[in-house]
Design goal:
Helix content: 55-70%
Radius of gyration: 24 Å
Low-confidence stretches: none
Structural class: mainly alpha
Order of helices and strands: HH
Mean pLDDT: 75
Distance between the termini: 69 Å
Number of strands: 0
Shape: elongated
Strand content: under 5%
Number of helices: 2
Length: 58
């Protein structure tokens, strides 16, 4: 089975490869859309303040 962590890995680190400009833009847009859907704590705090202020108006 294993050798308790001794020895060399079979594969090294993958080299960094340059990608085409359109592909790079597409990856940027995909990452932006994914990250924009994540609820951040600052947005949660703003929502709480809005809800609290709407209760005072009633």
């Amino acid at each position: 089975m294993g050798n308790r962590g001794f020895g060399k890995p079979k594969k090294g680190a993958k080299p960094i490869v340059q990608i085409s400009a359109p592909l790079q833009v597409m990856m940027y847009l995909i990452n932006f859309r994914i990250l924009s859907k994540i609820l951040r704590p600052s947005l949660t705090a703003l929502t709480i303040v809005e809800k609290l202020s709407s209760n005072k108006i009633k």
